Amino acid sequence: MPAPFLLSGHDWVTDGGLETDLIFLKGVDLPEFAAFPLVDDHAGRALLTSYFHDYVAIAEAAGAGVVLETPTWRANPDWAALVGYDAVALDRVNRASVDLVRAAVAGAERAIVSGCVGPRGDGYVASTTEADQAADYHLAQVTSFAAAGVDVVHAMTLSTVAEAVGVVRAARSVGVPVAISFTVETDGRLPDGTPLGEAVGSVDAAAAPDWYGVNCAHPTHVAPAFDGGGWQERVAALRPNASTMTHAELDAMEELDSGDLGLLVSSAASARAALPSVSVVGGCCGTDSRHVAALWGVGGA
């Protein structure tokens, strides 16, 4: 079904910071920050399913639909090779991740299964990959998602226009809806210095996705980007970090900063007021079901 129909007319709960939740709250070792190998383990699948069920419960309490991302932010060739996955194994686990999430949302009244694509490199560092290279690079993963019947492909924590354009081109080539979420520094600019609004406009001009989001940045870091431009109506998803720390500070942290919950809620509300199309709300690094429940004004799971 077309992406506008996926979101139109409804609110959608999405999940929090999967990897930081697993590492800091659940004590799981995630080499290279990769959660997808858990899909290949019985206990890992059970843990992921329990995690996803928390957000299904929040959506039910909020009277909203649920959009859940596959645990595949690191499931691309460069990162996967570091944890022992070749192309065949990677195709299998990407498909299995879609199946796992679809099973987890089976009881939800309204649910979207989103195939999560991460950046080729470090999400906090501007990519040097050109658009055509990015399209070729990400094609294998989006092809796996399409084969598994995913509802939408969502690239998160992207740092450049070029990689975003590449992901959109790859997704369009296999016929699946696609969303792009950029991350920003404390000044509302992408890691390469591009203003968020300019990035949205540039991607729209080259290869428009179905919608945009912003993730892995506190709402107070997104706020400087707001200039009243029409691009703000293209942003449909908000997944903030719990912490007001910079990306460099977060990269160096050895203990979880779960942030100021009241500030997160109030600043996210301010961001939503500036982004009238936002209907998908969840969290990113440092957030868990407690944060996401608070963002929706319901009790925690």
From TrEMBL:
What PROSITE patterns does this protein's entry cite?
Answer: HCY
Q: Which GO terms describe its molecular function?
A: metal ion binding; methyltransferase activity
Task: Give yes or no: UniProt keyword Protease.
Answer: no
Q: Which UniProt keywords apply?
A: Metal-binding, Methyltransferase, Transferase, Zinc
* Cofactors required: Zn(2+)
Q: Which GO terms describe its biological process?
A: methylation
Instruction: Return the Pfam families for the record.
Output: S-methyl_trans
**Does Nuclease show up as a keyword for this record?**
no
PANTHER family hit by this protein: SLR1189 PROTEIN
Q: What is this protein called?
A: Homocysteine S-methyltransferase
User: What is the originating organism of this protein?
Assistant: Nocardioides szechwanensis
